[in-house]
Amino acid sequence: MVMPSPTARRAGTVLTAMVLMAVQPLQAQNPRPGAPPMQRVTVVGAGPTNSLTDVPGIKVGHHTRSDSGYRSGTTVIRTEKGATAGYSQMGGAPGTKETDLLKPGGQVRAVQAIVLSGGSAFGLDAATGVMQWMEERSFGVPVGGGVVPIVPAAILMDLGRGGNFKKRPDATFGYKAADAATTDPVQSGRIGMGMGAGWGMGTASVLLSNGYTVAAIVGLNPAGSPVDPRTCLPYGYFLEIGDEFNLVQPKAEECQQAAAGRGGPNDGSDNAPRNTTIALVATDAPLLDLEAERMAQIANAGLARSIRPIHGIGDGDTVFGMATTPPTNAMNNADLQAIFNAGADVLGRAVVHAVLQSKQVGNSRMAYCEQYPSACVKRKAAGK
Q1: Are 118 and 198 in contact (CB under 8 A)?
Q2: What is d(CA 296, CA 46) in angstroms, rounded to the nearest whole number?
C-alpha cells in the first residue's frame, strides 16, 4: 500500500474543507451582513369583507343566468390598469386561454382581467366580451393604433348540468360581467361561475402581520368531494379563522342518510367524468411574475387538503396567481413564504364557503345546512 505524501494529505484536507464550505445550508449564510433577523409573519385575521375585493386594485363582477334553460355564469376579476399574474394547471382536462402568455420571462408581464366561467370550452368565448369592454375604454397593451387587452381565462364543465346544453356563456356574458365589476364585497354561493358548478362559488381573505392581504375566489366543481364522509364536515374545516364556518359535528343519522344518497344532486354533477375546479389567488404584495406563478402552484397543490381526490384525469384544475402592486425585488423569503402559505390556506377556506353558502337551484345539490341541519345550529343562531 502506497501512503500519500504530506503535501498530498494537506491538499486533500484543503479540498475537503472547500467542499464542506460549499455545501453549508443556505439558511446558515447571511446574504446581507448586518441585516436584522427576519420576523415571523403571522395571521392577523380575515379581511374586512372576507372576500376577494379585500385586495386593493381588484374589482369583481358576475353575469349569472338560471332562466330560459340556462344554469351557468361568468365571473370577471378586473384589474384594468394591470396586475402581475401567473398560473398553475393540474389535472387531465383543462380549458384555458392565454395561459402561456403568463409564463415567467415573457414580453407581457401584466393582465387587465382574468375570466373564470362555466360553459366548458364554449365558455372561453366570455373572454372576448371582456376584451371588447376593455378595448372600448383603452385598457390594454398599446399596439399600433390601439390596445390589446390581456385577458386569460379558465372554464369549468357545467354543460347540461340542470340546464340546456346549448345555453352557455358567450361573449355577452363576459361583457356584462366586466361591466358589473365593483369593489363591493363578493358574496359566495350560486353566482357567476358558481351557478352551474357542483358546489357553487366561494371566496375568502386573510390579513398578515407584514401588512399584506391575500384573498381567493373559487368555482368548486371537482370530481372529488370537499366533504369528509367520515365526519360529514368539510375537509377544509381545520383552516377556519375565528368562527367564520361556525359548524359543529353533525348527527350520525344525517351522515348515514347522506351516504345513502339523500341531498345529492340530480343534475349529473355527482361522480361525473368531466369536472374542473377553477380559482384565483390574489395579493397586494409586489410579486414578480415568477413569484405570482409560485403562489398559484402552492395554492393549487393545497387544494388536496380541502378536496379529495383532486387533480384527476377529468379535472382541469387551474389556479391563477395575481399581484396588484407593481413588482419589486424587495420581498424577502420570509414574506414570500408567508404569502404563498396564506394563498393555499385562503383558497381552502374559500372552498368551505362555497360548500356552506351555495343553495339548491332546481335539481342541483341540496344546500349543506339542509343536508346536515345539526351541523349548522350555531350558524343559524348567528343568522348565517
Answers
A1: no
A2: 20
Task: Assess if residue 3 is contained within a domain.
Answer: no
What is the greatest pairwise CA distance in the chain? 92
Phi, psi angles (nearest 5°) of residue 248: -130, 165
Q: What is the pLDDT of residues 113-145, one digit of tens each?
A: 999 999 999 999 999 999 999 999 999 999 989
Locus of grid cell 408581464: 109
Cα distance between residue 33 and residue 332, in whole Å = 14
Q: What total number of domains does the chain contain? A: 1
Residue 105 lies inside a defined structural domain of this protein:
yes
Tens-digit pLDDT profile for residues 49-73: 999 999 999 999 999 999 999 999 9
Residue 260 has, within 13 A of its CA and on its CB side, a CA count of 7
Establish if 10 belongs to a structural domain: no
pTM for the predicted model, two decimal places = 0.89
CB 119 within 8 A of CB 159: yes
263 phi/psi in degrees, rounded to 5: 90, -10
Angle at 296 between CA 322 and CA 235, to 5 degrees: 120
- Distance of CA 13 to CAs 8, 10, 23, Å? 9, 5, 16
Domain with 125, as residue range(s), is 43-381
In a domain, 8, yes or no: no
Half-sphere exposure of 238 (CA within 13 A, CB side): 7
Q: For residue 149, what is the domain's CATH number?
A: 3.60.70.12
